[in-house]
Amino acid sequence: MEKLKDVIEDVIRNLTTKKLGDKEANPQEWLKKTLTKKELGHIKFHYFRKGILGVRVDSSVWMYSLSLKKEKLLRKIREYNPGIKEIHFSIGDVR
């Protein structure tokens, strides 16, 4: 049985991506096009609100590594959505 927390996160994530419209406007697609396959294995899209992209990372090591590349990631993601202002990384479950 799924945890209530996971169900709520999935509902919010689905509402966010549906509100954005087509596949090009999907934050998960931006991440897939921007990050390497190895990096994608250690992250999970969390939210996208008010121009801020929230990303869960599975460890402090990966959080630090991605933080070093933050400006480069922002530039690449802005190609898909110029309105993005910031990326927030947080450590959490990446299932």
Briefly say what this structure is.
The protein has helices at 4-20, 27-34, 37-40, 60-68, 70-78; strands at residues 43-49, 52-57, 86-91. By secondary structure, the protein is of the alpha+beta class.
What attributes does this structure have?
single chain, about 100 residues, alpha+beta, GMP Synthetase, Chain A, domain 3, three-stranded mixed sheet, 5 helices, 3 strands, about 50% helix
Can you summarize the main beta sheet? 3 strands, mixed
Count of alpha and pi helical runs: 5
Note the overall shape.
globular
Total count of strands: 3
Q: In terms of per-residue confidence, which ranges show pLDDT below 50 for 5 or more consecutive residues?
A: 18-23
Per CATH, the architecture is: 2-Layer Sandwich
Specify the CATH homologous superfamily: Fe-S cluster assembly (FSCA)
Cα gyration radius (Å): 13 Å
Share of residues in strands:
15-25%
Mean pLDDT: 84
Order of neighbouring strands in the sheet with most strands: 1-2-3
Helix content: 40-55%
Looking at the structure, the CATH topology is GMP Synthetase, Chain A, domain 3
Spell out the helices and strands N to C: HHHEEHHE
Kindly give the count of domains.
Answer: 1
* Distance between the ends: 15 Å
